[in-house]
Amino acid sequence: MDVVILSRADTATDFVARVIARELRRAPQLTLGLATGRTMEAVYARLVQMHREEALDFSACHTFNLDEYAGLPASHPNSYRHYMNQLLFQQVNIDLANTHLPEGVAADFTAECARYEAEIIRCGGIDLQLLGIGNNGHLGFNEPLSAFHSRTRVQVLSPTTLAQNAPQFASPEQMPRRAITMGVGTILDCRRCLLLATGPEKAAIVARALEGPVTSMISATALQWHPACTVVLDKAAAGQLKEKEFYRWVFANQPEWNFYREALPAAKPAPRKQAAKRAVAAGRLK
Ligand code: GLP
Fold this sequence. Notes:
By secondary structure, the chain is α/β, with parallel strands linked by helices. It has 10 helices and 10 strands.
């Protein structure tokens, strides 16, 4: 696992969008795994901007979302299908037929989950899976005690998740109590995982997920087993990590991230230092 700590939420978001864009440019037929939640809104806004300003091309890629609320039709404003259509799919040149989410109003959920897993395999598996993290450490909607070998299935949502996501609904009672989610095993099968967490409210769970013992009580700890996982954090979300200096050292020495460092403008001295330099040059300060 690589842990990338950047100063602000917008720089962390930009980094994630650039990693996705780089993979998409390398392999336009990429199968991309997508996530939802407030954190991802800024990632999709940045990808839309890259599509408009840098001609980032989505025409050949396929996407699979992690999850969907059980019982919500695609047209419902709180469905993840609606979220994805609004924030990404209708803003870029993706073929809607190549975008996949579990069907929230399927007549037979067991058959729908099996169909979703089969569809992922038919597309050659997921190359790059974008992930957020819930306050209880869930990935997708893999609530505590989700088996690490679990596949796409219906999951009862925990009270923590209801509290976290209910404010997005017109009234808390309207939030479904169940969701269809890729399993932890489905996620571990993705070739590469890219998790983004920002803000101080994620600091405690990020520390437990990255540095705590691997346990099915916190689904995100399963990523410690993943052979190609990058976790991108802002300073606030990294606030409770013990090994920050080590992660910064690895980031600074990891050639894979040269593309990002090279794109950064050369650091300018802080304004106060510039003023002090001018004062020294003018002989007013020693
Ligand atoms: C939902 C999604 C998760 C996501 C989480 C984070 O619960 N099912 O996949 O990780 O939201 O949400 P936020 O970014 O709003 O904190």
